[in-house]
Design brief:
- The chain is α+β, with helices and mostly antiparallel strands.
- It has one domain: GIY-YIG endonuclease (3-Layer(aba) Sandwich), CATH 3.40.1440.
- It contains 4 helices and 4 strands.
- It has a 4-stranded antiparallel beta sheet.
- The protein is globular and about 50 Å long.
- About 20% of the residues are buried.
- The model has no long low-confidence stretch (mean pLDDT about 90).
Length: about 100
């Protein structure tokens, strides 16, 4: 593949984000994915997401960048498994440190 083709391919790839929020209220985690992390965090903070509406305030404690929607969905599913939660436990220290949203 030529350099120009690779650059064109990179420019058409839309990044998606798999994110983990921690509820300060119940110390539970919310795992999701989005293509616009900033907008999605605002939706959570403003109470527009049913899953987290009554669990606010929330902290963004972890996120990953994926290069397409399928990868983000697969990563979200993995993080919700027992092995994924173990992975997150090793990555996230149990504290209230994070980006408050």
């Amino acid at each position: 593949m030529k350099v120009k083709q690779k650059l064109a391919l990179c420019n058409t790839m839309k990044p998606y984000y798999t994110h983990v929020l921690k509820s300060i209220k119940d110390n539970g985690y919310y795992i999701g994915y989005t293509f616009n992390l900033k907008q999605r965090l605002k939706q959570h903070a403003d109470g527009f997401v049913i899953s987290t509406k009554y669990r606010r305030p929330l902290l963004l404690v972890y996120y990953e960048v994926c290069f397409n929607q399928e990868s983000a969905i697969n990563r979200e599913r993995y993080l919700k498994t027992t092995y994924g939660r173990r992975y997150l436990k090793n990555r996230i220290h149990d504290s209230n440190e994070g980006l408050k949203i």
